[in-house]
Amino acid sequence: MDEQEALALLESDTVDGIYYVDETPTLTVKAEGLMQSMLRSVLDGYVQITSTVTEVAQKDPALVADAVEKLTDPAPALEEVSLSGGSMDYMRENFYSLIAMTCLYASFFGLSGAMSAQANLSPLGARRSISPTKKMALAWSDILAAVLVMFAVVLVLIAFLNALPNLDFGENLPYLLLTVLVGVFVGVMYGMLVGVAVRGSRTAKEGILIGLTLVLCFLSGLMATNMRYAVDKVAPIINSVNPAALLVDSFYTMETYGIGERFWVNIGTLAIIGALFSVLSVAILRRKQYASI
User: pTM for the complete prediction?
Assistant: First the structure.
């Protein structure tokens, strides 16, 4: 149709956009929306294909037909995947948050290890400081022992929850154990970092651990089921660095969608957080010196 008729239809919202066919095609729209975005996408695709075919024709005209066939018959944009068969009931996240909180409460073992590694905080720390055994060897033995003990505690909790209706962790048991192990390690190192970095009595440090852990678990959905989704809308960066939220999302993703990229991103992020806590704890602990013991 002619331009004036097309503009009249555009003004009356009968059409969503007008293509101008010229040496360089253009698109005119009245407003921005889904349909306008689709029209712009079509135009961009046409321009890209035309540019590519022109470039191929200039280099080797014999390849034009093959290039046109491949460009006009692209691979499907959607990939069919199946869910793992698990339930998408959001109420189950309360139980996932409970497991996450238990993992983070491994911080109390980490705090005990930090206290026993510092000569000014405990008699055991004083004896260890004059021991011929290296300080880091003693610290890592405490860490490994704490991880193993707390790992066993969380397994008892999971065994109990697994007996409840509509909760079944059996199909993904190896990945479940991996998630719990990484979560417990993060918890232990989180407690050790507080123990070596925060000044004050053991009671004050325990108060910080309890308060911060409860805040993290609250944001992950322990007290309010939809809290994690609310945080995702307002400040998604919080969930991406919150160990409790990462653990909850790992459990939920594992059961609902199976083991995929989202699950491994969560595990990788938790491992990085645990490693960061470890580096900071070791660096602070090594710098501690005493005038006399």
Answer: 0.64
